[in-house]
Design a protein that fits this description.
The complex is a heterodimer of chains A (571) and B (219). With 571 residues, chain A is an alpha/beta fold. Chain A has 12 helices and 22 strands. The longest helix of chain B is centred in the middle third of the chain and has 28 residues. Chain B contains 9 helices and 1 strand; from the N terminus they run H-H-H-H-H-H-H-H-H-E. Chain B has 219 residues and is an all-alpha fold. Chain B starts with a helix and ends in an 11-residue tail after the last strand. Classes of the chains: A alpha/beta (571), B mainly alpha (219). Chains A and B meet through helix 3, helix 7, strand 13, strand 14 and strand 16 of A and helix 1, helix 3, helix 5, helix 6 and helix 8 of B. Strand 14 of chain A pairs antiparallel with strand 1 of chain B.
Amino acid sequence: MPGDTTHINTKAVTQNSYDAIVIGSGISGGWAAKELTENGLKTIMLERGRNLEHIKDYATATKDPWEFEHRGRTTEEQRKKYPVIHRGWAASEAVMQYWTNEEDCPYTEIKPFTWWRAYQLGGRSILWGRQSYRWSDFDFEANAKDGIAIDWPIRYKDIAPWYDHVEKFAGISGSTEGLPQLPDGQFLPPMDLNCVEKDVAARIKKVYKNNRHLIIGRTANLTEAIPGRTKCQFRNRCWEGCPFGGYFSTQSSTLPAATATGNLTVRPFSIVTKILYDKETKKARGVEVLDAETNKTYEFYAKIVFVCASALNSAWVLMNSATDIWPDGLGSSCGELGHNIMDHHYNVGASGKVEGYEDKYVYGRRANGFYIPRFVNLFGDKRDYLRGFGYQGGASRYSWSRDVAELNVGASFKDAIMQPGAWNIGATGFGEILPYHENKITLDKNKKDKWGLPILAMDAEIKENELKMRKDIVAELKAMFEAAGVKEIITHDDGHAIGHGIHEMGTARMGKDPKTSVLNEHNQVWDAKNVFVTDGACMTSSACQNPSLTYMALTARAADFAVSQLKKGNI
Amino acid sequence: MERRELLKMIALATGSVVIGGEFLLSGCKNQNAGKGLTFSEDDIIFLDEVAETILPKTNTPGAKDAQVGKFMTVMVTDCYESPDQQIFKSGIEKLNEESKKLFDASFLKLSAQQKTQLLIQIDANCKTFNKKVDEEYDALSLEERHKLTLEEHTTNKNYKTEKLRQNPYRFYTMMKQLTLSGFFTSEVGATKALRYVAVPGKYEGCVPYTKGEKAWATS
């Protein structure tokens, strides 16, 4: 393997040497770059996609609706080019510039798998949903208590200070609730629930004797300005990129901080094809990069490597590394690399009509909804499945797209739909998926991508525990809505293919034992201690909370540890 | 509750904004989309009349003011799959046939009142048909729906769209949806028929509303 050669070009080594390499520039990569550079490490951040400049490159963000030729809809041409993005709600005229070209970057579906990728500087931090929740010890202890997979090597106390750290910098708005299963954090003021949501919350609280809570979503949108960033303007167009820096993204938040240190180099169009592993030192000495534009190969060298390429691509990099020693790649010695893939299952819930409140409306467009934290299998509650789910939803008045009772054509129809319709409320569950060893990704060596690189094959599905949970998600939401007086309730379950939750995780899990885990308690690869994997790949279980905040905290924690180990000369 | 409304709210919670997208059609991909499809100036005049019948000018602008007929042809040409394009295009002739059946004259020759009467009748037919499809889908078991979703991922065919295509008046559903989305997302529609604020600057979850006040153009 050319990348594994010990031949070193001295000039290139000098030119291409850094203290740290960060693979990927999304939420985790951005945090790694910020923390490492702020600790004085000369760092190169490698991004496989194009550069995307804050504000300047948010091509649609200030357009009015009528300036979109297709008013938000994608074209047939785009539909053909991006078939996976068109599975569900991700396809919009406004954001097609961010999604990855599926013809260039195919993958194999042994079982149906939805992989929504965004290869550019900032990755999916531009497009993300911004919901930010802490985990609790109910989550970190779950595997051990249930005898599922392996135990997490950390507990809440290990990560709590790092949640504080990342929340303060990222800017998370939310309400303090004192719920043990959803710890409070360093919050900016919460956004408003609307009048219907407030009343439904009060009724749920009363009927369920203060054991269930409908709260405003905790979101990485600024409700107060912080240095360098303007507060959220309630346009609800976050995923087009925010010209105000109103939500957390690499571009609005971690990248400016890392750049300000003078220690950061960013290299776009840099596909990391492998980590260069040194047999003698049992450490990585750098990475091999394929330039996506020129197809030329380069090597970059560093004392530490942070792998933050997103759960599946981080596993892909490891699988392609050190294959002369471990045929299945760096970190595969435990037999778990690429296995235990998880996600959150959703598209299952209920909705209905709320009578009254005709004299109430809202001002502004809240890029947030309500959240009902987990209440099952907690505090003595016991179900016929393991773990739990939360709900995310909102109440609003029907828009012009509604049906009107009788006349559906003409002046009176027009007059009716120019006014807001009745109030309605709806929510979907977000459920935990267990880590199943047999849910896995592998390299499909028979097929290649545009650059001749092997592609991933996905073989994963939800199973009995999740299917049972989905039934309960529907039943409990229906019961809660009924208790709150919601009428004409309709339930739905539209099924779930792994990946559709865009919360892929678990392909290089953390653990206490090198025989059963890829990473240790500090996100170090057991087989190469100067390689850290801190994105979704590292997760040992999935909980049911949106995971990005936890990736941020784990990344900052691992970066701090890496710096201290470097100083001590341990890595 | 319309499912698209729910999806929109979920999209909201997960961070996406759907600009008029909740009223648009979806379905499978087709290799021949756009092939040989053309619309004449007469077609645009015809479509403008249909749109204006659905959303006439009152004390606020109507569909013609927003050039909805032209908008329909752009959307059908660029965004519709081939089978839907054919359904839409032949809809012009079909609507004339219905018009002749009821009033013995082609659509453009009808009085405004007759046009409205004709479209109300077709609208009711569509509503019944679409409701039946919704009900059939909702009656499916959880397992069946799960299976359909997974199949959709490999076949790229949407179960419901396929069913909806069997509606003999499907062309009208398309014309109406495009009329509504075309008008209310246009500049006159959003700013004159509805209220539009590009940068609200704040969110208030509970403000007074008096019947008759216009709805917000975007959510």
